[in-house]
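Objective 1b. Sequence-to-structure analysis of GNAT family N-acetyltransferase.
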Amino acid sequence: MTSSIFHAETDEQIAATFDVLQQLRPHLERDQYVPTMRALMGSDGLRVLALDDDGVVRAVATYRVMNMLYCGRLVYIDDLVADERVRSRGYGAQLIAWIKDEARSLGCSEVQLISRVTREQAHRFYFREGFGIECFHFRTQLS
């Protein structure tokens, strides 16, 4: 496998992550994707991580570094998705391992993410990668 993991920082690199990330976030629109990601990168410190295999983006993660009163410094994963056409090839595990290493190097105490209750396959993957369920995440829609 000739894969590499890199931060998508140029507009071209960010745009190359669209097709994979849209599999997780189907509401995203191609023409607004780069400006939306740039805005989140600027305002919230979002980082876009891509795994490229033979010149094709195969998996994407977005994450940010945060500080919380209850646990200190952490990496929060917003999105993690491997291209559905090439799942179960270890791409997601490579991204998780990279993020854990990055979190350690940044002095973080943990890595967190939220996953919808309906995503059972993703949950099995997260358990295998050492994540556990620690709390409920409550949400309400505002009109």
